[in-house]
Specification:
2 domains; four-stranded antiparallel beta sheet; binds adenosine-5'-triphosphate; DrrA1/2-like_C; ABC_transporter-like_CS; AAA+_ATPase; ATP hydrolysis activity
Length: 308
C-alpha cells in the first residue's frame, strides 16, 4: 500500500509537528514501523486504528512519556505547550474537582491568583463549575473524563493530544467533549485525536491517518481520503423497482430490504431505476446516493472492521 505524507501546511503555512521514521519495540515485538507524518498548525489530526494498532504508543512518544524509540519527533513551534489527555483517567478521587485542577496547575508552574483564575476558567470550560467543591469519587464516568481533559489544558497548551477521550461515556458528555474540541479549534490549538470511532474522526478532524499493526497505511486530509477511495454507490428500496440487469449484477448487494449498487455512473443508474419504475409501475420508497464513509475505506485498506 502506498504511503503519502501530509504536506499541506497550516493556516499560516506552519507545521506544528514533524514525525520522522518512528520505530518502537517492546522487547522483541515491533509495535511502530517507519511512521512519518506532519501535522499542520491548527489542524485536528485523527489517529485511527484498532485496539493494539499502536495509537497510544505513538501518542506517548509525541507527549514525551516514552523516550526509548528511534526516529525523530520535532515540534516546529519552539513555544509549543503540550496538553496530554491519557486514555486512562488520572485523577485523585478523594480530592475535589478544583483541587485536582490546582494540583496539575502547580505541576505546570502556576501559582496564587493565576492558578485560581485558570482553575475557575477550566471548570467553566469543562462544565463542572457547579461541582467544583465535590470529590471526584462522586462523579460519573463522563464528568471524570471532562475533568481529565481540564487537567490537561490548565496551562493553556497549543498542542492538545487526546487518547480515546470518549470511550465508555454517556452521550451528553461525549457531546460536551465535541463542543470543547470545537472551542480548542477556534482558539487555534492543534489537536491530535486517537479513536477507533470513525464517525468522530469524520466529524472533528481535518486530517487523519490509519494505523494498522504499527504502520501508517494511509494518511491525509479527510476530504481527500474520502474522494480518493470512495466508490460511488446508490441505495434503492421499493416494490418492483429494479431492472433485471441491475438486480443480477455483481455490483448489486442486498441491504436492509433494499439494494446497494456500486457504479462509476450512479446518476445514470438512478435514471434507469426511475424509468424502469415508470414503465413497470414499480414504487420507489428510497433512492439515494450513499455518502462515502471512512470506516469503509479503513476496511478496504486493512481488511479489518473497526469494532466498539
Ligand atoms: N508497556 C508495554 N509493554 C509491552 N507491550 C506493550 C506495552 N504497551 C503496549 N504494548 C503493545 O504494543 C502494541 C500497541 O499498543 P498500543 O496501546 O499502542 O495500541 P493502541 O492502538 O493504543 O490500542 P488501544 O486502543 O487498545 O490502547 C500492542 O500490541 C500492545 O499489546
Amino acid at each position: 500500500m502506498k504511503f503519502w505524507h501530509t504536506i499541506k501546511k497550516g493556516k499560516d503555512g506552519v507545521l506544528m509537528l514533524i514525525a520522522d521514521d518512528i520505530n518502537k519495540y517492546y522487547g522483541n515485538k515491533k509495535v511502530l514501523s517507519n511512521v512519518s507524518f506532519n501535522i499542520p498548525e491548527g489542524a485536528c489530526y485523527g489517529l485511527v486504528g484498532l485496539n493494539g494498532a499502536g495509537k497510544s504508543t505513538l501518542i506517548k512518544i509525541i507527549a514525551s512519556v516514552i523516550h526509548n524509540y528511534s526516529g525523530k519527533v520535532q515540534l516546529s513551534d519552539n513555544s509549543a505547550r503540550i496538553g496530554y489527555v491519557p486514555q486512562e483517567i488520572s485523577l485523585e478521587e478523594s480530592l475535589t474537582a478544583s483541587d485536582n485542577l490546582s494540583f496539575f496547575g502547580r505541576l505546570y508552574g502556576l501559582r496564587g491568583k493565576e492558578l485560581e483564575k485558570r482553575t475557575d476558567e477550566v471548570l467553566e470550560k469543562v462544565g463542572l463549575a457547579e461541582r467544583k467543591k465535590d470529590k471526584v469519587k462522586t462523579f460519573s464516568g463522563g464528568m471524570k473524563r471532562r475533568l481529565n481533559i481540564g487537567c490537561a489544558i490548565i496551562h493553556e497548551p497549543n498542542l492538545i493530544i487526546m487518547d480515546e477521550p470518549t470511550v465508555g461515556i454517556d452521550p451528553q458528555s461525549r457531546k460536551y467533549i465535541f463542543t470543547m474540541i470545537e472551542q480548542f479549534k477556534k482558539d487555534n490549538c492543534t489537536i491530535i485525536y486517537a479513536s477507533h470511532y470513525m464517525e468522530e474522526i469524520e466529524r472533528i478532524c481535518e486530517e487523519a491517518a490509519f494505523i494498522d499493526n504499527g504502520k501508517f497505511v494511509e494518511s491525509g486530509s479527510v476530504n481527500h481520503l474520502l474522494q480518493k477511495y470512495a466508490i460511488p454507490t446508490i441505495y434503492v428500496k421499493g416494490e418492483n423497482c429494479l431492472p433485471d440487469e441491475l438486480r443480477t449484477s455483481s455490483s448489486t448487494k442486498e441491504k436492509n430490504g433494499g439494494y446497494l449498487i456500486t457504479s462509476n455512473n450512479p446518476l445514470a443508474e438512478m435514471r434507469k431505476i426511475i424509468n424502469f419504475c415508470k414503465e413497470s409501475r414499480g414504487e420507489i420508497e428510497r433512492l439515494e446516493l450513499v455518502k462515502p464513509k471512512l470506516e469503509d475505506i479503513f476496511f478496504s485498506l486493512t481488511g479489518s472492521q473497526l469494532r466498539d
